[in-house]
Amino acid sequence: MTSGVRTSALVALAVAALAGCGGGSDGDPTTFGRAADRTCRDLSAAVTTLRQDLVRTTASTEQAGLATALQRYSDGVRRAADRLADTKAPKADAAFRTSTLEGLRRHADAMHAAAVQGRRGKVATALAEEVRGAGLPEIPARVLEDAPDCRRTGD
Q1: Residues in the chain with pLDDT < 50?
Q2: pLDDT score for 129
Q3: What φ, ψ does residue 22 adopt, rounded to 5°?
């Protein structure tokens, strides 16, 4: 097989694979609502773990305990974002999905940076604002229909 034929075959295979992934179709609203609900459960679990880690730390210093707790929280937020990224949103919710993913990833990065600073004995000055979840969009009502865990008010 010549190089040109091999390249053409690879391009055709890539196009076929993308078509099989539903590249041009609209995401299912119910599936996306369930994915949003799972994201809310994942984030709730990350917050619960953060609280527990802050109270039950076994670290040798307060800074080390804070850093470990923040890093575990950051990792949980990142995993929640990655799982949501695996689900295609309906066209009506595409902007919400994009904003949410950007906000969650930015938040995970900020918490990671705070964990790094915590290891150095310094806590990020923006930590309080980040913990409040600044920068995340409001969940559209149509998504909430299939996301009961997102309707609950936070603890």
Answers
A1: 1-24, 153-155
A2: 57
A3: 75, 30
Give me the half-sphere count of Cα atoms (radius 13 Å) on the Cβ side of residue 20. Answer: 6
| pLDDT confidence of residue 90 | 95
Q: What integer pLDDT is reported at residue 128 of this predicted model?
A: 58
Quickly list H helices, 2-60: 3-20, 29-55
> What is the residue whose two structure tokens read 């599936």?
31
Q: What are the DSSP E strand ranges found in 32-124?
A: none
* Residue 64: partners with Cβ closer than 8 Å, 6 or more residues away: 57, 118, 119
Token pair belonging to 42: 């994942």
Claim: this prediction has a pTM higher than 0.90: no
Residue 65 CA: distances (Å) to CA of 20, 99, 112, 120: 46, 31, 14, 12
Distance, C-alpha 62 to centroid of its chain: 27
